[in-house]
């Protein structure tokens, strides 16, 4: 019997197409992996094991025909299946149609076996929802796999499936990929489908794609997305093949900027700095020109504007839920932090929000100018390695304050108190690098280039000009074959 876990998505599809393995065998092996490991990792919160007919899988012309995948339990709705967004308030919600991302995912021939765990409404860089419980990192189950695509990352990094759906509104592809030793690409705004009922998510900051163990799976999937007529944004066109780009060496020396400084001015762990410094030395040995240079975007203002979006979107989300559940959302329906964020969103003025969006455009222009001088921009993906499960819980005082303020509905008072700045700093202190690409719309990827002394993965982020995913994939493809690339198959739960 072949070793299912040794193959990526394209590898499994090739075996099925050549009839060297039956598609039903591949599905059975994936299900076995899920059932054996999910009790420990809590990556999959809803199973969908209804199998398509074998002849349908064999005859499918999709590039991933017969490959088992999982989708994320938010924004990736599957008709007739639950989609709770990690919240008890939506525990009974059943989707009435596929999202456009799922439709196009199905067209590649994949078989969807279930949905993965997320923090409530995908709001955290860790996946520890109250309703479903914490997902755990396959490298060490005492630690988080990150978030918000933490369940997907844990599933892929443990060998359950080679590919899992993810989305990224502030680092939710890149953070869990970095923590679990995976490749994670956030595409250019407007590159991937968002409909059919949405034109934008988080004002365009959030995009859907996948998490994968190999660069080529991510590139091949990126090739499959088609124009989405509902999208409010359209990415610069690319007429080539991303898969071919990932397998084509870069033919010229690149000029690359890098920094290990936090844009918030906060501490960056030495392990995260080491990940970048090792990668810089490797790139220099490959003939690229690497210069220590920070982007000119005001990091603290960027963080403030990101939190402005955060607050407003949570408030709008809870208001929109009224049509879904048939009544107003109450304090006890959601986690206390979610409720507080919604109160803060209601306290944001239209002027503040519009001013915030204007800064997004200014930052995008600054980065376009920056990329006139530098092909790529490298930072740590995160400022710290993975945290322990429960480590980032609120203090007892914070919990009491949140419940008190939340129960009284005093969002405006909280906004003026300075506690908001503390929330923002605590929220982004560990992950201050990823939000830039979300607000500017640039593509950004994380590369598994370092293991800490504790044996936990630590990622390196690389950003490019809008529309230049091909350059990122070229670089990733070259680095993937070096000894510096972390082999996810070495983790104890693979």
From TrEMBL:
Amidase domain residues: 28-473
Keywords: Hydrolase
Enzyme class, first EC level, given as a word: hydrolase
GO molecular function: amidase activity
Gene3D superfamilies the UniProt entry points to: Amidase signature (AS) domain
Family: Belongs to the amidase family.
Protein's name in the database: Amidase
Protein source organism: Lederbergia wuyishanensis
Origin organism lineage: Bacteria, Bacillati, Bacillota, Bacilli, Bacillales
């Amino acid at each position: 019997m072949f070793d299912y876990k040794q193959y990526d998505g394209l590898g499994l599809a090739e075996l099925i197409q050549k009839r060297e393995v039956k598609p039903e065998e591949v599905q059975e092996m994936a299900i076995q992996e899920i059932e054996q490991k999910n009790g420990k990792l809590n990556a999959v919160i809803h199973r969908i094991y209804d199998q398509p007919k074998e002849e349908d899988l064999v005859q499918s012309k999709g590039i991933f025909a017969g490959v088992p995948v999982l989708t994320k339990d938010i924004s990736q709705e599957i008709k007739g299946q639950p989609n709770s967004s990690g919240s008890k308030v939506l525990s009974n919600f059943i989707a009435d149609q596929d999202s456009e991302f799922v439709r196009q995912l199905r067209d590649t021939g994949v078989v969807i076996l279930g949905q993965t765990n997320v923090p409530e409404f995908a709001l955290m860089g860790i996946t520890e929802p109250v309703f479903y419980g914490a997902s755990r990192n396959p490298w060490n189950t005492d630690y988080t796999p990150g978030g918000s695509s933490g369940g997907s990352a844990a599933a892929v990094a443990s060998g359950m499936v080679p590919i899992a759906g993810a989305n990224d509104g502030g680092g939710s592809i890149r953070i869990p990929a970095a923590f679990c030793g995976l490749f994670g690409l956030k595409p250019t705004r407007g590159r991937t489908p968002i409909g059919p009922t949405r034109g934008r998510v988080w004002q365009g900051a959030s995009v859907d794609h996948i998490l994968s163990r190999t660069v080529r799976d991510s590139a091949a999937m990126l090739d499959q997305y088609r124009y989405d007529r509902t999208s409010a944004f359209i990415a610069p066109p690319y007429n080539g093949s991303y898969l071919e780009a990932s397998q084509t060496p870069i033919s010229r020396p690149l000029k690359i900027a890098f920094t290990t400084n936090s844009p918030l001015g906060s501490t960056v762990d030495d392990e995260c700095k080491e990940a970048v410094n090792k990668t810089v030395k490797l790139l220099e040995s490959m003939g690229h020109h690497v210069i220590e240079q920070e982007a000119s975007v005001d990091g603290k203002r960027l963080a403030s504007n990101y939190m402005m979006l955060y607050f407003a979107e949570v408030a709008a989300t809870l208001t929109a839920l009224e049509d879904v559940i048939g009544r107003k959302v109450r304090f006890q329906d959601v986690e206390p932090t979610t409720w507080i964020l919604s109160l803060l969103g209601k306290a944001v003025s239209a002027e503040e929000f519009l001013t915030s969006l204007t800064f997004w455009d200014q930052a995008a222009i600054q980065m376009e100018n920056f990329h006139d001088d530098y092909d790529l921009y490298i930072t740590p993906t995160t400022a710290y390695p993975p945290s322990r499960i429960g480590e980032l819980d609120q203090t007892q005082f914070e919990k009491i304050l949140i419940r008190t303020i939340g129960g009284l509905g005093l969002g405006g008072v909280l906004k003026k108190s300075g506690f908001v700045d503390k929330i923002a700093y605590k929220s982004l202190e560990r992950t201050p690098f990823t939000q830039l690409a979300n607000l500017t719309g640039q593509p950004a990827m994380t590369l598994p280039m370092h293991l800490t002394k504790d044996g936990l993965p630590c990622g390196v982020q690389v950003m490019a000009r809008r529309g230049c995913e091909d350059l990122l994939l070229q670089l990733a493809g070259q680095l993937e074959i070096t000894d510096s690339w972390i082999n996810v198959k070495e983790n104890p739960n693979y």
